[in-house]
Amino acid sequence: MVDFHKRILCSDEVHFWLNAYVNKQNCRIWSEANPQVYVETPLQPETLTVWCALWAGGILLQNEGHNVAVNGDRYRAIITNFFIPELNNHDVQELWF
Q: Sorted alphabetically, which Gene3D superfamilies does this protein's record hold (predicted)?
């Protein structure tokens, strides 16, 4: 397979916080004295979930909506109702997903 790299497709979903909050799990504040820094975050911030697939033929995006988690049923619906029809529009013969 000469063009094997063109047949690989990667996908993922991401949650965007609409209140400009950034998840900084790896961010630490270092100081010689206790800086008494508090970062207030909402318990359940409003989010926008986006599913994306990236391959040599381009990028496929699907907006899943506000405050939505991508579970097994929703992922199956994305694949069935959006992803497969989009791939059929691109005349893909062989693809590794």
A: Ribonuclease H-like superfamily/Ribonuclease H
